[in-house]
Amino acid sequence: MSTSQPSVSIVVPVRNEADNIAPLIEEITTALDGRWDYEIIYVNDGSTDTTGERLKAIMAQRSNLRQLRHARSGGQSAAVRSGVRAARGVIVATLDGDGQNNPAFLPDLISAVEKGAGRVGLAAGQRVGRKDTGFKKFQSRVANKVRNAILQDGTRDTGCGLKAFRREVFLMMPYFDGLHRFLPALVRREGYDIAYVDVIDRPRRSGVSNYGFFDRLWIGIMDLAGVWWLIRRKKPTPDVTEVKA
User: Fold this and answer.
1) Is 141 within the bounds of a domain?
2) 41 — phi, psi (to 5°)?
3) Bridge-based pairing state of the strands 163-166 and 120-128
4) How far is Cα of residue 227 from the mean position of the Cα atoms in its chain?
5) Boundaries of each Glycosyltransferase 2-like domain copy (predicted)?
6) Is residue 47 within 8 Å of residue 13, measured between CB atoms?
7) How far, in Å, are 23, 96, 103, 125, 152 from residue 30 at the CA level?
8) What is the largest CA-CA distance in the chain?
9) Does residue 243 belong to any structural domain of this protein?
10) N or C: where does the chain have the smaller number of CB atoms within 10 Å of the terminal CB?
């Protein structure tokens, strides 16, 4: 690990993505080198292929690359949370490990949080030109409309893995499986603004999807109801000052 304190941490949750490891890390470094002091944290979510070995080989060459490993798969939300908790940067950015999220958009997301000067808690990527089947895109549109009607989070696409946020804001969130899909609503709940960045989707490089999609609406119904309840029960955050003697 680098001895310097990074200002930005890039968290990448992966499960059985061996062939996508090296190309994505190369793209991340191309996007960020010379712009921030950063670290890359791969969260190996119980992979059974050579994902861990590929990461170890690159770690020998890159001092700012870290690998966390789950003994068994806990899912994408658990992997993101593990990475954020281990992160040393004030700002954390996330992207999926399958190559569909282009790291070239990371600087725009990180800069949006920085320019927010503490007011922007989350910069959310919004996909254009999605590389999914017509039926999958239809499911996603329906799910996003239902979610937005209930939560009124003002976000057209919560399923994009490209996000940047203040680490302290993420750690305020109540943890549950699927948390990463409801970040806009929960960040607004804490009184922060959200910045949006259009990002161009691209096909997966290799392999198959290892995590479920929120665009299957019936999977997210209970989570949707739970987040709605959390928002309804939120009281104004007290304005706290310490009284000195």
Assistant:
1) yes
2) -115, 110
3) antiparallel
4) 18
5) 9-170
6) no
7) 11, 17, 9, 19, 37
8) 65
9) no
10) C
Q: Which residue type sits at 127?
A: R
Q: What is the amino acid identity at position 41? A: I
pLDDT tens readout for residues 107-162: 999 999 999 988 999 999 999 876 555 655 555 666 666 666 666 677 777 788 99
User: For residues 168 and 70, what is the distance between their CA atoms, to the nearest angstrom?
Assistant: 23
**196 beta partners:** 124
Q: Hey, how many other C-beta atoms are within 10 angstroms of the C-beta on 235?
A: 5
Q: How many CB atoms are located within 10 Å of the residue 107 CB?
A: 17
Asked if the structure places residue 239 within a domain, the reply is no
Give the span between the Cα atoms of 31 and 50, in whole angstroms: 26
The pTM score is: 0.83
CATH of the domain at 220: 3.90.550.10
Contact 41, 86 (CB under 8 A): yes
**Tens digits of per-residue pLDDT, 1-54?**
444 799 999 999 999 999 999 999 999 999 999 999 999 999 999 999 999 999
CA distance 27 to 15: 19
- Quote the domain boundaries for residue 209: 8-233
**φ and ψ at residue 165, rounded to 5 degrees:** -160, 165
What is the residue-wise DSSP string for 180-221? GGGHHHHHHHTT-EEEEEEEE----SSS---S--TTSGGGGH
Residue 147 DSSP SS3: helix
